[in-house]
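Fig. S4 source data, part A: sequence.
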Amino acid sequence: MSDTLKSADIQLIQQILPHRYPFLLVDKVVDIDGYASAKGIKNVTMNEPHFQGHFPNTPIMPGVTIVEAMAQTSGVMIGVAMDLADKDLLIYFMAIDKCKFRRKVVPGDVLEMNVKTVRGKPGGRVWKFAGVATVDGEMAAECEFTAMMDL
């Protein structure tokens, strides 16, 4: 672990990721340890459009959006580590493996996405990450995912 952990507020996140409402799924990223690990924070609110249909009287955050939030956290981590703000970074999923869901995520929850780099190197295009998403310390989801960076 490096001596100085970095963070990214919503302004820096938007300089790194191309995602915008309604698909920007991370509010801030903290504890960025270079290329090694980071923690993303997502404040889940009833105002999000997926809750209109998933499900009308029982709003539950779709599992695929939890996985996407973990991937966006990884993108911000690499973007901060490689100083990619305002560089038109695009990142594409190549694989999602070992994905499991353990807890519902509902409006009012604070979703924490802890991601670690499994494989990848500075300047490399293909990266593999492991992620665990939690609410109040309880696991909501976990997975491994591979992504390709395109600058």
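Fig. S4 source data, part B ends here. Helices lie at 10-16, 63-81.
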